[in-house]
Structure formats: C-alpha cells, structure tokens
Amino acid sequence: MTMDQLRQTCLDCRQCNLSETRNHVVFGVGPEETPILFVGEGPGQQEDLQGEPFVGPAGKLLDDMLSIIDLSRHNCYITNIVKCRPPRNRDPLETEQQACICYLRKQTLLLKPRILVCLGRIAATRLIDEQLRITRDHGKWFQKGGIWMMALYHPSALLRDVTKRPDTFRDLKGLQAKIREVCPDFYDTMTP
Ligand code: SF4
Q1: How far is the CA of 22 from the centre of ligand 1 (A)?
Q2: Residue 189: inside a domain, yes or no?
Q3: Angle at 149 between CA 143 and CA 151, to 5 degrees
Q4: Nearest CA, atom 6, ligand 1
C-alpha cells in the first residue's frame, strides 16, 4: 500500500465514534522521504476544520519550535495518534487509540523514520513507555525497533505554562544533536 492509498483509506474510515463528530480526517503532512516523524495526540478544533495537523495556536508554536533547529513541515512528517478530533479536545479514549493506531503503524512502516518525536504525554505513553512521565522523561532518548524516540512537551502545554519553555529549548537542541548523529546528511539534503 502506498501513502496515498493509506490516506484514502483513512479519509473514509468509520472504525470508531470519532467519525460521527469530525469535519475532516487529519491524516498527516510532510515529505515521505524524511527520516524524522513527529506524533501528537489528536486534532484540535482548527485541525478538524482545516484537515491539517497543528494549524491552530499550538501549531504556530510548533512551527516556531521546529524553526529553532531548522526543521519544518517541509522536511519532517507530522501526524497524530488519532486522526479525528475528540469532542471538546478531550484525551482520545483507549478504544479510539486502539482503533486508529493501525494508521500510524502503517505510516511508520512506509516512512521508515530514524527518529520519532512524541508531542505530549498521550503519544509518549502510547509509543515509548506506558510508565513514561512527561515532566520527568521529556528530552530523554529511547530506542525501539531501530528507531530513536524522545518526548517533548505538547505545544499546548507550552502555551499554558511558559516556564516549561527553557526545558523544551534544551530538548530541541538535544534533538538537533541526535539528528546530526543519526542522520548526518539530513541538514545538507532536506531544505527547511
Ligand atoms: S479516529 Fe481513526 S479509527 Fe476513528 S474514525 Fe477517525 S480515522 Fe477511523
């Protein structure tokens, strides 16, 4: 299956109740040849309206965060654990995550990322370790299935609590160092 075929299957999906309240399925954006994958928890209101991940205020902050280390949606891939918006921005239920995770697994198989960055607690506990605590473990590196993984605070958390931003700046610098270590050609071949 190609990424376009997977996208089309996902756009038609009605495997969980979130399909009943969504405006758009938010599949993901970015180049397929990138070695870097960012995963958030699920679309918010603006993402649901526009069909693209991280386009509201948190998305603007994510773009700013990425630009600090010469990343952008043009050189890395951005998606979520669930592809449809949970009502009132609640956390996605376990059943909804279970129903939707197949799309992320297939995206990961197609992208073959070297580095996966979880944005926030939900993605980090789902993908890295269910015991992970974002306040304790953000910025730490884990290796699973040949992929280097780390968690950042979710941009929404950084909007609510600016005191977390210095930690995130350090974590981004750690990410930049890991990119240089694991993907030494990245900054020469992928334009921001
Ligand atoms: S959240 Fe995922 S599993 Fe549920 S309807 Fe949307 S695409 Fe399908």
Answers
A1: 9
A2: no
A3: 140
A4: 84
121: containing domain:
3-180
Block residue for tokens 């609510």 = 160
Pocket of ligand 1 (CB under 6 A): 10, 13-16, 18-19, 25, 82-84, 96, 99-100
| Residue linked to tokens 């280097």 | 148
Say which CATH number the domain at 105 has.
Answer: 3.40.470.10
Per residue in 64-118, pLDDT (tens digit) is: 999 999 999 999 999 999 999 999 989 999 999 999 999 999 999 999 999 999 9
Q: Specify if 191 maps to a domain.
A: no
What pLDDT was estimated at residue 182?
A: 97
Structural domains in the chain (count):
1
Confidence of residue 41 (pLDDT cuts 50, 70, 90): very high
Residue 116 lies in a domain: yes
d(CA 129, CA 47): 27
Is there a domain that residue 68 lies in? Answer: yes
Confidence of residue 173 (pLDDT cuts 50, 70, 90): very high
Number of Cβ within a 10 Å radius of residue 99: 20
Give the whole-angstrom CA distance, residue 71 versus residue 98: 30
- Has residue 120 got a pLDDT over 90? yes
- pLDDT given for residue 27 in this prediction: 98
CA of 192 to the centre of ligand 1 (A): 30
